[in-house]
């Protein structure tokens, strides 16, 4: 059974997380999620317990428990397809348009000056 573990201290290690859950049952896998840019922990991770019973026991005994100075949250991990879609603010398309859209618009604009209201013509 795969469990989501949230509100972890940024100082928590995979080894410490595994030791915590091993006190409740058999841990088959531990994964702390790291930030891609900084390679620092993001404050949550996943622990896989060997059976569903051990997973439920871990949720009951560790959810809300203080670990590394923070009250952690432990719940059943949801599959990726069950999560709401991620909002993407980068790149082209959607939102405020990309660089190419502005470049194309500016290329078609008349750049000979003038424009605006000229009182002398009226």
TrEMBL record:
Xref: CDD domains: RRM2_NsCP33_like
Source organism per UniProt: Terrimicrobium sacchariphilum
Keyword ATP-binding: no
Keyword annotations: RNA-binding
A Pfam family annotated for this UniProt entry: RRM_1
Positions with biased composition (Basic and acidic residues): 78-90, 99-122
Name of the protein in its database record: RNA recognition motif
Keyword Repressor: no
GO molecular function: RNA binding
Recorded coiled-coil stretches: none
InterPro entries to which the protein is assigned, alphabetical: Nucleotide-bd_a/b_plait_sf, RBD_domain_sf, RBM, RRM2_NsCP33-like, RRM_dom
The organism's place on the tree of life at top rank: Bacteria
Chain ranges of the RRM domain: 1-79
Region (Disordered): 64-122
């Amino acid at each position: 059974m795969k469990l989501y573990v949230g509100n972890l201290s940024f100082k928590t290690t995979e080894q410490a997380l595994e030791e915590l859950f091993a006190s409740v049952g058999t841990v088959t896998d531990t994964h702390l999620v790291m930030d891609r840019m900084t390679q620092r922990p993001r404050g949550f991770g996943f622990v896989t317990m060997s059976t569903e019973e051990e997973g439920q026991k871990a949720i009951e005994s560790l959810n809300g428990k203080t670990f590394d100075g923070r009250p952690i949250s432990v719940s059943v991990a949801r599959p990726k397809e069950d999560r709401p879609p991620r909002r993407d603010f980068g790149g082209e398309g959607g939102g405020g348009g990309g660089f190419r859209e502005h470049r194309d618009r500016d290329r078609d604009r008349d750049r000979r000056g003038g424009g605006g209201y000229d009182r002398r013509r009226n």
